[in-house]
Amino acid sequence: NAGVTQTPKFQVLKTGQSMTLQCAQDMNHNSMYWYRQDPGMGLRLIYYSASEGTTDKGEVPNGYNVSRLNKREFSLRLESAAPSQTSVYFCASSEGWQSYEQYFGPGTRLTVT
Amino acid sequence: SQQGEEDPQALSIQEGENATMNCSYKTSINNLQWYRQNSGRGLVHLILIRSNEREKHSGRLRVTLDTSKKSSSLLITASRAADTASYFCGGSEKLVFGKGTKLTVNP
What we know:
The complex is a heterodimer.
Chain A: E1 4-7, E2 10-13, E3 19-25, E4 31-37, E5 43-49, E6 56-57, E7 64-68, E8 74-78, E9 87-94, E10 103-104, E11 108-112
Parallel strand pairs in A: 2-11
Antiparallel strand pairs in A: 1-3, 3-8, 4-5, 4-9, 5-6, 7-8, 9-10, 9-11
Chain B: E1 4-7, E2 10-14, E3 19-25, E4 31-37, E5 43-50, E6 55-58, E7 61-66, E8 71-76, E9 85-91, E10 101-106
Parallel strand pairs in B: 2-10
Antiparallel strand pairs in B: 1-3, 3-8, 4-5, 4-9, 6-7, 7-8, 9-10
């Protein structure tokens, strides 16, 4: 039981390049989330998927797209990376949408030059 | 926004002492959760307190919730060096977090 896994762990992009961050969970959770964390800051929600087949914007969705591929997988895509997107990205999942604890992945450290 | 705001931003104590950190939030919540983050790692869930609860215990952790003041506190008793981490609170649904309290427990 691996919990929440994220790939890659580290990535360096040039401005304008695109990439997809992958996230998978093996806990049969219904809800999944993508956050970003900048130095000295809390987590900010980018997008979430309350259940399979649905996605919604969070606090900072601009510049990102997501796909809930199936119940297990939730990917985050940067279409044209910008230096402002340099951050650590965390994926999380929870059993349900409300009143459930979230389980976090180890994070992806992304640098855009 | 249901953003949690933790206070203080940083706290340094000696091993064995108690650590108290506070959280304030802006809108009504169904529950409030506390998480710990060790440096460079993902968040780990510590405790969830529902809006109809006033106090909850889990091991060395004690959480209180005052919905009239939209605030919560986390008390860690008999702290250990391993408790050194950042602590975040977040409300229900989208779990919008504040900047956290950075706790340092000195041996």
